[in-house]
Specification:
Length: 192
């Protein structure tokens, strides 16, 4: 059971190329929805199991965050293949989110020499909104208002994460909000 969180995260990573392959083969819509639900389920359960068996490590948390980013980029690619018009209609917002993500990764890599993985509440809200947006598109071919909401929450989440990286002196994991980062900036708790 101690290795199950790592296995669940790795399986989610393997879903990324599968989602792209499903898009190019024009697989039935339910297959995309199934992948999304497996991804969100594995993301939830890997954390629950890791905490229960005390195997939460900074490496596992960072691997989880990087896996999420890769998976959702793959889903965005699949949307481009199957629903390019949706991507075009939201291109500015998607571009802002992608630019903020790149800026965060670059800033963290320069400042901390590694990617920060805060798992903030805003990031969790953003992830839920992404799943809702993608399920509504793949399952029901409805894009708005869900895509606009997800983009807005993505911008908020990335700005909050970037501010936390500016404030903190080391890349902690499990920083719930910018307020926690501000409080912990000089009295940082030990990473799990």
């Amino acid at each position: 059971m101690q290795h199950l969180p790592l296995i669940l995260t790795a399986l989610r990573l393997l879903l990324a190329p599968l989602v792209i392959a499903l898009a190019y083969t024009h697989a039935p819509r339910w297959t995309f929805v199934a992948c999304l639900f497996f991804a969100i389920g594995s993301d939830y359960w890997d954390g629950v199991i890791a905490r229960k068996y005390h195997v939460v490590t900074p490496f596992l948390r960072r691997f989880d965050s990087i896996t999420d980013a890769i998976f959702y980029l793959a889903v965005l690619w699949a949307i481009w293949v199957l629903h390019a018009n949706v991507v075009r209609s939201h291109i500015v917002g998607i571009g802002i989110v992608l630019a903020l993500e790149c800026i965060r990764y670059l800033f963290d890599s320069i400042k901390f020499r590694k990617v920060a993985s805060y798992h903030m509440w805003s990031a969790k809200c953003w992830q839920i909104s992404i799943v809702v947006a993608f399920v509504s598109l793949f399952g029901f071919e409805i894009s708005d208002p869900f895509f606009s909401i997800a983009i807005t929450l993505g911008i908020v989440s990335d700005i909050e994460g970037l501010c936390a990286s500016v404030i903190l002196t080391k890349p902690l994991t499990d920083v719930p909000s910018i307020f926690h980062a501000w409080h912990w900036r000089h009295t940082t708790p030990t990473d799990p």
